[in-house]
Design the sequence.
């Protein structure tokens, strides 16, 4: 599929624009939101005849399905279905919205989707873990029901991110994902209709913060459409309630203002301010939008990450959006529980491995004081299958990066962009052995181009955050060159040296020092861990027992305590999660969670609680 707009069966589909997801739908005096999630009609299109048969004119013989919800575990027989399926809902649009612009926003459609309103083509979106929105006002029927049709296709293809069916890739899974989590499909997040004022509307707000002494410095870029040239910015919270009038030039206004006696945002004190933009006057605005944001800075030295100028250590996990039956769907009670459990063990951060999560996660992190490493869906990039595939993936990774930065840039909780997870070369042993063939060298330089390109892009779009990617064990060090903080996924004691704790410790120690000495940059262990079957115990070191997992995690934390340049320890994983079937994944599960999939603690969770509330560094 191309990233450009396409035509099929004489219909034109607009390409989704990352700008249209910058502002989460909001109910206020000028805007309305209608959550149209719920039970939708659903029909699998096994032979891919739906478009030719014009299923967008109404689904016949359809099943019922829950949205949000991955489709895989809702109906018997669909678990491994990764082809095309159609969703349909009929709904009225409130008459009161008649004079507004009306958008539809889909939180996530895995992987490629096309949309019709009342049988008329609207738009398409490629990429499974980020929202998209389209303006549909001119397709709405008033006083009657409107048919919303979404076609979703989730084939595993080598030139997608994440990729699948990679010939010669390192996974032999069923289904053939080239990554270690189940390729859940369907509409996994909420779907909204929302309205914005027609005359003039706020399109985007970008807040950047700094401070000098006790004064907070805010720089707010407002972008709008429509004929209005004035606005007011209001900052509210912590004893401040301040209006700053401003003027637009070319639909943009950059407003700078100070906050006296600022309360800085941090995990210990997640102080938030309300930033409200009014178009026109505050009293009778043409449009209004309110963001919650925190004033904070994030910087790095050669050995530290500084939050508001003070060293901060990131303690936490790599996670997944994963829960029985829901699949990858938004499950708010599980999200709330996860934050509670992360607090219970003393964690202050996590990585949204291996794709951006639904928006609620970030809002909650802002309020609860968590630090997020926000990761794009570029997991498992390979560089051996020809220029065309490499470039297609690069283009999609860059598009997803634009989308995620557009969506998440105002969250104080987001401190870093991870542009990829475990890009790889085929001969991972070569780096260790120092025997790099010509073919491997070509992969290394292609990889460097992609990764440095993505990190450069992230910096260009947002110079205020850490940029990095999570690197695979055995991956070329050359790729680490442009990372602000080096993220390492390491499995000494599990995938290598299993059972040999002394060797594992020695290798880990040695490699950490080697990398630090080469780059003189702070290091975060973005993955380490061991599978443990909950309830399996032993008196001696035995893999898959809870004791082994606990001992391995303890060893890694001890090593980290002895290194001044280690700035974060993220255990893989927070909870057990579903994967494709593979011989290393009994019951289709990765069991490296310190909690089970149902969020019951293993011994390692208690260990973390002791350590992270104790006096150790980690
Ligand atoms: C990794 C991957 C992660 C896997 C993990 C494992 O390095 O980044 O997606 O789940 O290893 O458990 O093998």
Sequence:
């Amino acid at each position: 599929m191309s990233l450009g707009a396409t035509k099929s069966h004489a219909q034109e589909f607009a390409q989704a624009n990352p700008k249209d997801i910058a502002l989460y739908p909001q109910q206020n005096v000028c805007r309305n939101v209608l959550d149209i999630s719920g039970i939708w009609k659903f029909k699998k299109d096994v032979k891919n005849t739906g478009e030719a048969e014009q299923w967008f004119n109404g689904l016949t013989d359809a099943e019922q399905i829950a949205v949000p919800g991955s489709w895989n575990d809702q109906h018997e027989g669909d678990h491994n279905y990764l082809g095309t399926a159609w969703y349909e809902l009929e709904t009225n649009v409130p008459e009161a919205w008649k004079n507004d612009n009306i958008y539809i926003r889909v939180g996530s459609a895995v992987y490629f989707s096309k949309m019709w309103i009342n049988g008329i083509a609207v738009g398409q979106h490629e990429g499974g873990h980020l929202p998209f929105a389209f303006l549909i006002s001119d397709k709405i029927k008033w006083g009657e029901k409107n048919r919303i049709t979404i076609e979703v296709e989730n084939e595993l293809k080598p030139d997608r991110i994440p990729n699948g069916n990679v010939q010669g890739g390192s996974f032999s899974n069923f289904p053939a994902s080239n990554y270690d989590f189940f390729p859940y499909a369907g509409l996994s997040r909420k779907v909204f209709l929302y309205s914005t004022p027609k005359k003039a509307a706020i399109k985007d707000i970008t807040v950047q913060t700094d401070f000098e002494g006790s004064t907070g410095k805010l720089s707010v870029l407002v972008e709008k459409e429509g004929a209005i040239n004035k606005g007011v910015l209001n900052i509210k919270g912590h004893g401040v309630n301040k209006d700053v009038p401003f003027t637009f030039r070319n639909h943009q206004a950059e407003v700078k203002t100070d906050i006296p006696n600022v309360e800085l945002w941090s995990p210990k004190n997640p102080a938030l301010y309300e930033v409200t933009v009014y178009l026109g006057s505050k009293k009778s605005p043409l449009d209004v939008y309110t963001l919650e944001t925190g004033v904070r800075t994030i910087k790095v030295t050669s050995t530290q990450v500084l939050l508001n100028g003070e060293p901060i250590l990131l303690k936490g996990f790599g996670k997944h959006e994963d829960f029985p039956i829901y699949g990858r769907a938004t499950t708010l009670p599980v999200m709330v529980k996860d934050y509670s459990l992360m607090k219970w063990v003393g964690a202050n951060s996590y990585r949204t491995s291996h794709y951006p999560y639904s928006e609620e996660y970030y809002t909650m992190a802002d309020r609860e004081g968590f630090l997020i490493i926000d990761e794009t869906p570029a997991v498992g990039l390979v560089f051996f299958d020809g220029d065309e595939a490499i470039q297609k993936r690069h283009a999609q990774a860059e598009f997803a990066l634009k989308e995620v930065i557009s969506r998440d840039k105002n969250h104080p909780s987001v401190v870093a962009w991870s542009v990829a997870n475990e890009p790889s070369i085929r001969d991972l042993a070569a780096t260790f052995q120092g025997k790099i063939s010509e073919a491997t060298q070509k992969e290394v330089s292609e990889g460097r181009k992609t990764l440095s390109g993505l990190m450069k892009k992230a910096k260009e779009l947002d110079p205020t955050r850490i940029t990095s990617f999570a690197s695979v064990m055995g991956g070329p060090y050359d790729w680490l060159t442009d990372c602000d903080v080096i993220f390492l996924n390491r499995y000494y004691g599990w995938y290598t040296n299993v059972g040999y704790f002394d060797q594992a410790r020695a290798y880990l120690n040695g490699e950490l020092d080697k990398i630090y000495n080469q780059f003189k940059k702070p290091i975060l262990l973005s993955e380490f861990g061991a599978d443990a079957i909950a309830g399996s115990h032993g008196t001696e070191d035995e893999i898959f027992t809870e004791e082994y997992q606990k001992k391995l995690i303890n060893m890694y934390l001890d090593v980290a305590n002895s290194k001044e340049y280690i700035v974060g320890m993220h255990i893989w994983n927070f909870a057990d999660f579903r994967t494709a079937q593979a011989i290393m994944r009994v019951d289709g599960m990765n069991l490296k969670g310190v909690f089970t999939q149902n969020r019951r603690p293993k011994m390692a969770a208690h260990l973390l609680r002791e350590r992270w509330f104790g006096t150790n560094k980690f």
